[in-house]
Amino acid sequence: MKNIFTIFLTDFKRIKTNVVAVVIxxxxxxxxxLYAWFNILSNWDPYGEESTSKIKVAxxxxxxxxxxxxxxxxMGDEVVSALxxxxxxxxxxxxxxxxxxEGVYSGDYYAxxxxxxxxxxxxxxFLSEDVKHPEITYYExxxxxxxxxxxxxxxKTTVQQQVNATLVSTLSQVMTKAVGTIMxxxxxxxxxxxxxxxxxxxxxxxxxxxINQVDTFEALVDSFILVVDSLNETADxxxxxxxxxxxxxxxxxxxxxxxxSLNTGIVGQTSIARSLxxxxxxxxxxxxxVSETYEDAKGDLEAFNNSLQTMGINLHETKSLMxxxxxxxxxxxxxxxxxxxxxxxxxLMEIMTADPEAVGDFMASPVEIETNRIFPVENYGxxxxxxxxxxxxxxxxxxxxxxxxxxxxxxxxxxxVRAEHKYVGRYITFFLVGQVNAILTxxxxxxxxxxxxxxxxxxxxxxxxxxLVFTLLIYSLTFAFGNIGEAAAVIIMVIQVAGxxxxxxxxxxxxxxxxxYSLLPFPYAMDAMKEAVGGLYGSYYWECIGHLLLYIPVSVxxxxxxxxxxxxxxxxxxxxxxxxxxxx
Length: 584
Fold this sequence. Notes:
The structure is a single chain. By secondary structure, the chain is mainly alpha-helical. Helices cover 70% and strands 4% of the residues. It has helices at residues 2-16, 19-42, 49-52, 75-83, 97-106, 119-123, 148-181, 185-191, 199-237, 241-263, 271-297, 301-341, 343-352, 356-364, 380-403, 419-448, 456-481, 483-499, 511-517, 522-534, 540-549, 551-562, 567-580; strands spanning 56-61, 66-68, 71-73, 90-93, 111-115, 137-140. It has a four-stranded mixed beta sheet, sandwiched between helices. The relative contact order is 0.09.
């Protein structure tokens, strides 16, 4: 034990009295910490809007637009207009599609979206029999950056959502306008139609109005039939022309009154009203013809009776047609009212009467996922802190064996120095420098980088344990195998960085690598720190610490047992290095 402390105190005095040594030790402590801090801060929130808004993505539109029920609609212009207020990506609106594409090739833009001239026409082709699938051409420069394409893929999603929302909103506006164009404002007021009525409500009210009109005309036709029947009876029993003239005159006067009512708009101006009004005029003309026929007949009652019979047949046929029309209208109303009670129709009406923007948002993403964040981490920097901290501790351990010799030179007055004395005595310096680096790195994470940390003390303890294990393992490899041990430490670091699960999930790697990583200390140190940052789950934190501590006896065995057979080989390597005149 005395020899161990003597070796350590000798090392401490040499460092304390040598300015260069002090500066080097400080560098060994600070530089790895800076490496961790800078990486944490540079990766603080790379997928947030503040960062992604700096990624330039061009967008250009050649869309010529299309007409929907008299409404001009240009999806390309709508999308471009909407994206002007979207800050999720650094949108660049180019004047031509050629400029957008060339910008991707030159590297000015990471990606570009080009909307073709027929885009709107293809988009609304589902309204016709010739359905075409609309396409937006996406250009992406994958050479410019490896991660950028993953970020710019958000641009494709954003445009797709914008197209969906804009399409539904526009179709809703078209349907709203269609309701408004069914009739003018005066007709809507006459029928009691309000803005809250649906298309089916409007049609039902119009059909009911038409039924009322048919009832009115049916009553009028009944009156006309009475007139003609009266004329027939009068003609059959007529004794003089004056009686017939009076009856015809009364009929013409009655029809003129009805025609006047139509002309003043009592019945309305719908197509049914106009058609029946024309029929009424024809009947009035027929009565006039009857009068003229009677005058031409010069008292020929037989000819006059024939004319009246013809008129009666026409009127009865008209009444029959009107009865059929009324029946059809009533059946249609009943079917429409049944439709209104249907759940599917009610759901459709709810959608059509909803706010167009809300409908567009719904159609763009009809299913919402409620996210319950388990062990939430505030930002990407905090999530990556464990990886960069553990990596910094490993790098610091490598720096130590590269700069500080593991071999102990003879010390005056020190006798019976065995290999284990040298091993432990020199390692104390490595241990202390490593622990100072660990606590500095952790404090910088907490107070300089301001990472999220649920358990600060456990974060430090995980860092301290990782430093103990890493420095001891790398020190032992170098103590036992010299430069070969240093090289092995570098190789182990490279393997661990690639597959410890710090950046990409280790599950995406080949099975053989996953098995190798489970045997290395890096993943356990990182998982322990993740527990401290995001929150503890059961005893997993201590399980990770336990796995780390298992490498201590392994390291001691490497340094004290496996190193003995390699002593001569290490000496030979050192001699050859010095003899080369090039290597330290």
